[in-house]
């Protein structure tokens, strides 16, 4: 076994075979190549604007054409030139190389090699993803993905995260979000951007001493100090991503009240109002159980208490069931013929979502013919009676105008994507476009970590200036001054 170290001089490194996907374990250890800077320079047309694929918080990503045995298109990540680095800490690029040189999986944007420039900065060469990011597909594509595609993406991402968590030692990604999910040539989802990832067991020094980091909106509220980190923080971020996939909503969106997708969606899921969280651009899936199941999985992933969240292995199994259900022609035919089959159900107690709710598994029973397809189970939410009192019905959340300078934002004409029906009343909401969330290095003051008790629940939002100049660019801090403990149970 040999693994690549960022400081190693060797040009080629092989991967820890333990972490290879099964079909690769027997024969091919993957190879990491050291490129010369000039080779990447000419492959990217001197890092030209034409080759620019995108810009992240740590640098720029370029498309590169390598002429090896055959023409190869790859992506090159070049870190921004900033002030002199603290030599003891790994840069995000070094961290990404270090991690990705040890793991390799079809659901990841895998490392192909690296180069070092004159200032000893590392450039990363990774697989090229020709179909953009999930963020773009969900939020700026004129043809948003349908349910089959969304379920497939969700399962593929879950498999990638599960693979990382099962590696030895585990890899915790810490920055799962839609802009870090890239779409490959087969239109499959891959998890990328390992700049903030950590590799180690929770008791390892590296994990115990690294300050919290992530992207606002996706960041686990229970992850406030290094010691809080576990694979369950990724599960939380995955849950946010799943809510984004279901609803087409940004993780934070000031068009909604509350702006955070989790605060908005979970009460709706708990009260069974699945239609409210369904992306209005694509409507309900043909089999509405698919929506319910996805929503319940998401709600379980975003529980405030990390220990109550499922492991990614469970999430993968649940999503496989949803995927199977979605792609089953038998189910689709019957679903089409009989509409939404809800009658003839047998309620099986499942596992509580929280103190006030229970998830019930509903197996379809009935005719022999129906029983055949009843292997496909659905999961539903029910309110229960606690201490003799039925839990008060949660009022539907009314979308309200965003907090902030809405006067500067024009109202758009009534359309389906922007309309919510509440008791027959169509409400047309103004649109505020948000720039996508950026990774934060850390939620830490320059000298010490935030005091856990003083931390405020806040979201930073940024308005972007549209080419027509109608929206102003500004940053806002929305602070929710509730005194609740960030470690409060749900
Ligand atoms: N392997 C790739 N193939 C094709 N395009 C890519 C690839 N990697 C990144 N990109 C593009 O470059 C953009 C910037 O990626 P990068 O990972 O640097 O930042 P980000 O994830 O968007 O933001 P942040 O750095 O805040 O996490 C992506 O949104 C994507 O459009």
In terms of topology, how is this protein built?
Layout: E1 12-14, H1 22-25, E2 31-34, H2 37-43, E3 52-55, E4 59-67, E5 71-79, H3 92-100, E6 111-116, E7 122-127, H4 134-139, H5 147-166, E8 171-172, E9 181-183, E10 189-191, E11 198-199, H6 205-209, E12 214-215, H7 231-247, H8 261-270, H9 274-277, H10 288-301, H11 312-327, H12 329-338, E13 345-349, E14 357-364, H13 368-373, E15 378-383, E16 385-386, E17 389-390, E18 419-422, E19 425-428, E20 439-440, E21 457-463, E22 474-480
Parallel strand pairs: 2-6
Antiparallel strand pairs: 1-2, 3-4, 4-5, 5-7, 6-7, 8-11, 9-10, 12-20, 13-14, 14-15, 16-17, 18-19, 21-22
How would you explain this protein's 3D organization?
Belongs to the protein kinase superfamily. This protein has 490 residues and is α+β, with helices and mostly antiparallel strands. Among the domains are: 33-82 and 89-127, 2-Layer Sandwich (Phosphorylase Kinase, domain 1); 132-329, Transferase(Phosphotransferase) domain 1 (Transferase(Phosphotransferase), domain 1, Orthogonal Bundle), CATH 1.10.510.10. The protein is 26% helix and 20% strand. It is built from 13 helices and 22 strands. The strands form eight sheets. A seven-stranded mixed β-sheet has the order 1-2-6-7-5-4-3, sandwiched between helices. A three-stranded antiparallel β-sheet has the order 13-14-15. α10 runs antiparallel to α11 (312-327). Residues 1-27, 338-435 and 442-490 have low confidence and may be disordered. Adenosine-5'-triphosphate is lined by residues 53-58, 61, 75, 109, 126-129, 132-133, 175, 179-180, 182, 192-193, 438-439. Adenosine-5'-triphosphate binds next to β3 and β7.
């Amino acid at each position: 076994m040999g693994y690549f170290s960022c400081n190693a001089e060797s040009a080629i490194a092989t991967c820890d075979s333990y972490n290879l996907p099964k079909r690769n374990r027997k024969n091919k250890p993957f190879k990491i190549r050291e490129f010369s800077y000039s080779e990447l320079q000419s492959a990217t047309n001197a890092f030209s604007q034409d080759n620019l694929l995108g810009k992240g918080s740590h640098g720029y990503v370029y498309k590169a054409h390598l002429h090896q045995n055959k023409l190869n298109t790859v992506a090159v990540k070049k870190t921004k030139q900033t002030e002199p680095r603290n030599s003891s800490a790994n840069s995000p690029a070094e961290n990404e190389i270090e991690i990705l040189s040890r793991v390799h999986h079809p659901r990841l944007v895998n490392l192909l090699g690296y180069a070092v420039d004159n200032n000893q900065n590392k450039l990363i060469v990774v697989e090229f993803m020709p179909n953009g990011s999930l963020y773009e597909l969900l939020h700026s594509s004129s043809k948003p993905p349908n349910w089959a595609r969304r379920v497939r993406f969700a399962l593929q991402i879950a498999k990638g995260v599960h693979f990382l968590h099962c590696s030895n030692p585990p890899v915790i990604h810490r920055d799962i979000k839609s802009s870090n999910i890239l779409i490959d040539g087969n239109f499959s989802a891959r998890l990328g951007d390992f700049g903030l990832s950590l590799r180690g067991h929770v008791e390892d020094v590296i994990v115990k001493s690294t300050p919290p980091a992530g992207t606002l909106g996706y960041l686990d509220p229970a992850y406030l100090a290094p010691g809080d980190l576990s694979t369950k923080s990724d599960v939380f971020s995955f849950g946010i991503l799943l809510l984004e996939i279901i609803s087409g909503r940004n993780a934070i969106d000031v068009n909604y009240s509350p702006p955070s997708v989790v605060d908005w969606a979970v009460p709706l899921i708990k009260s069974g109002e699945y239609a409210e969280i369904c992306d209005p651009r694509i409507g309900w899936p043909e089999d509405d159980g698919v929506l319910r199941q996805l929503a319940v999985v998401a709600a379980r992933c975003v529980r405030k208490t990390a220990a109550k969240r499922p492991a990614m292995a469970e999430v993968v199994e649940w999503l496989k069931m949803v995927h199977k259900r979605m792609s089953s022609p038998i189910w689709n035919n019957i679903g089409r013929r009989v509409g939404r089959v809800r009658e003839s159900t047998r309620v099986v107690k499942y596992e509580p979502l929280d103190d006030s709710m229970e998830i019930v598994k509903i197996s379809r029973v009935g005719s022999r013919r129906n029983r055949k397809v009843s292997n496909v189970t659905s999961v539903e939410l029910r309110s229960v009676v606690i201490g003799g009192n039925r839990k008060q019905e949660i009022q539907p959340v009314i979308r309200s105008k965003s907090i902030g300078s809405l006067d500067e934002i024009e109202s758009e004409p009534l359309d389906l994507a922007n309309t919510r029906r509440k008791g027959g009343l169509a409400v047309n909401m103004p649109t505020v476009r948000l720039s996508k969330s950026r990774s934060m290095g850390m939620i830490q003051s320059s000298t010490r970590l935030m005091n856990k008790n003083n931390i405020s629940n806040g979201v930073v939002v940024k308005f972007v200036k549209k080419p027509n100049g109608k929206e102003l660019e500004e940053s806002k801090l929305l602070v929710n001054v509730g005194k609740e403990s960030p470690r409060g149970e749900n």
